[in-house]
Sequence to fold (146 residues):
Amino acid sequence: MNILEQLSERLKDLMTEADVKTPALAERTKIDQSVISKFLRAERLPSAKTLVSLADFFHCSTDYLLGLTDNLKETSFKQRPPFSKQLSFLLSYFHVTKYRLEKETKLTEETVNRWHKGRYEPTVENLIRLANYFDCSVDFILGRET
Fold:
């Protein structure tokens, strides 16, 4: 099952368990109802911000929502820092240069520079790529867990 399908299934399960319908989820998370419907139909992946909003609402990890772990323990995460700061932390923490990150993950220099300067946040696919590269969780990549 791919990430789109995993997210769709996990979101449906969590919504059923919480007895929340799409309109109520949209209202409580401030995510457009049509966007949530696309997640449920496995037509679209969320942005990092939206992924975190959903994980916070359901008190689960982003890794669980994406199907990267089956561990569904209720967890509280810290507020995530801007990704530009988190990227600097990750590079320092793992002793990796931007150049090495680009080469070993096949990310473009432009992409990494945009993240580093705070112009863009990574897509879910790139968050997963970074988590795999650094061998950690997506929540750690986002700065939500220590």
